[in-house]
Each structure stands twice: as structure tokens, then as C-alpha cells.
Amino acid sequence: MKTRKTTLAFILMAVLAITANAQQYDPESDFKFDWDPDVKDGVVITKYIGRKNEVRIPPSIQNYPVTSIGEMAFGENKNFTSVTIPNSVTTIGRGAFYGCTSLIAITVDSGNIKYSSEQGVLFNKNKTTLINCPRGKTGAYTIPNSVPALGRWLLGDAPALPV
Fold first, then answer.
1. What gap in Å lies between CA 42 and CA 63, rounded to an integer?
2. Which domains does the chain have, with CATH numbers?
């Protein structure tokens, strides 16, 4: 009987640990979306309408992959502080985070084939192009040596360029 209780307790702890570590995405209702014209059966986020401080873009909406973040999709949103981009996103439109003065960190899923992030700053996958440094980010930041030159749209207040 004691072995059974121990086993049951162990299984319960494992399930709780897995659940606690599972990445929770924001609900589909927090986003306006449309079909991605460049990707068959892909979805483009056209506007964030949620109210969370920490935004987690879902990898799929209505069982279709979220492949793009549209132009100005988060533009002028002054409430959220961080955004997590899933591995399914392959295009980020110009100005996606324009005017997001409270945004301090952009995090990209490590499995993303087009984008990456480091210390909350958005890069292309190889970290040769700095795409977006969030407007609300404070303190010193050292740009990696892999970035050969700074683009015109370096600050998070300026439109981001697609890679």
C-alpha cells in the first residue's frame, strides 16, 4: 500500500511539474487575424486586442499555424511589456512593435528558423541583423560582434523590417 501511495504521489508531482512548465499561450480571442497571403493555410496576426502585460503569441489559431505578425499588429500599444514569438512565425511586418513604449523584451522560441532574440532584443536567426530593440528597454546593451552594421530602424519606436 505504501509503494502505491509513493508511486501515485510521484506521478502527481510529475504531472504538476509538466503542467507548471508548459508554455501557456494567450487565447485566440486576444488577437485579430486573417489568412496569410504568402503562406498556404497560414495565419497572420493583424492586431493584438488583449490586455496582458506579457503576451505569448500562440503557434496556431483555429488549428492553422501563425506564420506572420502583420504591419503595426502591436503598434501604439503602450500596455504590454514583453512578447514571446513562437517558432511558427516566419515574417514580422514593418512597424509590428511601433510605438510600444512599455515593451522591454522580445523573446523568440529557439526553434524559430527566421528569428532569434538575445537579452530581449530581436534579431534575424544568425544574429547578423538587429531588427528591433524594444523602446522600453533600459540600461546598457552590447550589440553582438555578429552584427556588421546597424540598420536605420534600430530603435523599437521605428518600424521593424522583415528579414
1. 10
2. 25-163 (3.80.10)
